[in-house]
Amino acid sequence: MQRQILALLASLALASLAGAQDVAIAIHGGAGTIERSELSADEERQIRLTLETALRAGHQRLENGASALDAIEAAIVILEDSPFFNAGRGAVFTHRGANELDASIMDGATRNAGAVAGVSHIRNPILLARRVMDESPHVLLSGEGAEEFALDQGFELIPGRYFHTERRWEQLERARRQTTSSMPVPPAEFRFGTVGAVALDKNGNIAAGTSTGGMTNKRYGRIGDSPLIGAGTYADNDTCAVSSTGHGEYFIRAAVAHDIAAQMRYADRDLVTATRDVVHNRLLKLGGSGGVIAMDRAGNIALEHNTPGMYRGSIDTDGTVTTAIYGDE
User: Fold this and answer.
1) Mean pLDDT (whole number) for 170-198
2) Which of 94, 179, 194, 323 is catalytic?
């Protein structure tokens, strides 16, 4: 009898392994006018290394059986902690010289979602967005209310000086010089920058997350697409997971992330066709620039952008690791 039980357990284990879903993850670190002449060899090396580190951190979680949500958190936290990307530590400054951070996360299995906007004392906004999803009846909390919730949840509020980097301060000063009171929206070079991730776990579930510091020199409590479900972030197991980056006003108006999923659901388009149509056709017709990363439950990956460059990377279901920055890669 003992042999029979052991044989049965072994066969169940083998069946479980055989039926396990391949895992995959993709990330972005923002889209925009990214030219080779703008990055030194050392900066490019560090950016590619950070992208790969974030990818491998998320992928390792997936390989260990963690959920797509957990993998997204692991990857985005690394990007938020890097000064090279406009999120967390590397966030841009508002017109008044502060940092206001946004983030969102969504579960494709349940379509539960959480988001925060306009927080200034949260080191990793993606973690707070996840907590809003898991521990509150709400989807989006903003400003002081979001930070009060963070305290209730045991988060540490950090001083605003944590986010100060000289590179971002210099960007603010340039933007101020180029922006007038009659034209509060800064030139295109200051409108971009976001990080995000999409992932597929061993249970066949997908998820998406996005985090940003917003727009350099933004005013009046401006909130972009990143914390808005359906614009900057969307995930649904029946279609795809999407994280967006670009000029947020246009991504909101085009409901970019949801539009990609809707094309797959209602027009029976595949992932790549849907993302290309939205990024290179519908978004451009409105005047919007930027890009998306997207993934479906088969592990297919789309990394599309209509800008000269987009910090991006992926580990596909075969385990192939890729990172890229420029448009011709």
Assistant:
1) 73
2) 194
